[in-house]
User: Fold this.
Amino acid sequence: MPKASKKSNKIVLTDSYVPSDKEEFMNPVMTEYFRLKLLAWKADIIEQTRETVEFLQGENVSHPDPADTAVANADRQLELRTRDRLRKLGKKIDKALARLEAGTYGFCEETGDPIRVGRLDARPIATLSIEAQEMHERGERTRA
Assistant:
């Protein structure tokens, strides 16, 4: 049974709670667990983005040595690509949070079946069950 308490209509999780396949799928405690996990991940991304912006603003791209300038430009491009990946990941987290609010989080978009708790815990933005993901990847390989 999940370890949680309810205070003033709000679920408060204990640090030791880990969702499992043995409990009711997407019960209020499990839903809150994933909501908090997604919000923490999003906060981490926002912090990383802030650090990237500070790095880019403080970086001097013009160096006396052309090799140093080239290295600085390569570092800048890498930071920009990383920031773009984080931006896309942030959008996926927002979509997962919207699915949580709509009550569709944790269910495969292809089959409608529940996504295994272990998969959601490892990849909280997952939208497909492992089986549907494998079929999707096989289809991509066939088309390629």
About this structure: Helices lie at 28-58, 66-102, 117-122, 130-143. The chain has a mean pLDDT of 87. The radius of gyration is 20 Å.
